[in-house]
Amino acid sequence: MNIHTYEKVWLVASMVLIVGFIATITYGAIGPGIAMINDEGGDISPDAIADDERFDDPGVEHVGGNEYEVAVIAQAWSYSPSEIEVPANSEVTFYVTSLDVTHSFSVVGTNVNTMVVPGQVSEMTVQFDEPGEYGILCNEYCGEFHHTMEGKLNVVPEDEFDLTELSVEAPDEVAAGNETTINATVSNGMQTDLETTATLEIGDQTDERDVTVSGDSSETVEFPVDTAELEPGEYDWTVTVDGYEETGTLSITDATAGGDGGSDGGDGDA
Question: Residue 193: which H helix or E strand, with range?
């Protein structure tokens, strides 16, 4: 049987296209990091999500070196956390589960794209080499406001990233002449030690303390405030640590005003 040259060309071209389509579909289905349902993270009951150590405080965790893990909870119609920050030159593993219905977790521009099914934990790993901003989308219809379900992933330069947290405990009121303290707790979520400076500013007083926080731990810095150096009134205070800031107001009352009432108030603060 004699086949015309042009027919041979079209037959070969058709076969190439068919093979190409099959290869493309296969890669899209089983390519690295892409899965319809990736439940490598195991099973979890939606009612017990808050009791699971991975999801009781969802967010970024440093697990060592340049490796990080991110726990995410999907629910109608949001992600928790809705904004994620990781450093460049890092390998990030996402653990995602659903609190209610089936969602998806898709980081635009990466190979992270999976369904998120209630009762399962989807596990996905991706390498981020350069700083950038990525959108997070849900590609599974999950109800009326499905189109509003989105998040953000920020990849920042390594020298701009940390997992420092600052919390401050301070009295609202103290009698003049009494000494009180403002306590700043610095938490370090990295596995490496954090060496930084904690600073308190109140009135004309400035107090700086060097603090070293071991990896994955916290330290509390006590700032004594001598109210004998301050007149009765209200004083704004500011505590800063490693670029983080907490503010508040301390009221200093006249210890002699009101007789016994003023003295009782001072004793209470002491």
Answer: none
Q: In the chain, what is the greatest distance between 2 CA atoms, to the nearest angstrom?
A: 119
Q: Hey, what amino acid is at 213?
A: V
Instruction: State which H helix or E strand residue 142 sits in.
Output: none
Nearest to 124 by CA among 65, 38, 26, 27: 38
Contact by Cβ (8 Å): 246, 197: no
Same domain, yes or no, for 45 and 129? Answer: yes
Predicted TM-score of the model (pTM): 0.76
For residue 236, what are the domain limits?
A: 164-269
Transcribe 211-270 into DSSP letters. EEE-TTEEEEEEEEEEGGGS-SEEEEEEEEETTEEEEEEEEEE-TTTTTHHHHHHHHHH-
Q: Could you tell me if 146 and 207 lie in one domain?
A: no
Same domain, 37 and 26: no
| Cβ contact 77:86 at 8 Å | no
266, pLDDT greater than 70: no
Per-residue model confidence as pLDDT tens digits over 13-33: 888 899 888 887 776 655 554
Could you report the per-residue pLDDT of 51-87, keeping only the tens digit for each? 999 899 999 999 999 999 999 999 999 999 999 999 9
- What are the residues facing 219 on neighbouring strands? 186
pLDDT(111) > 60: yes
What pLDDT is stored for residue 37 in this prediction?
53
Is 49 in a helix, a strand, or coil? helix
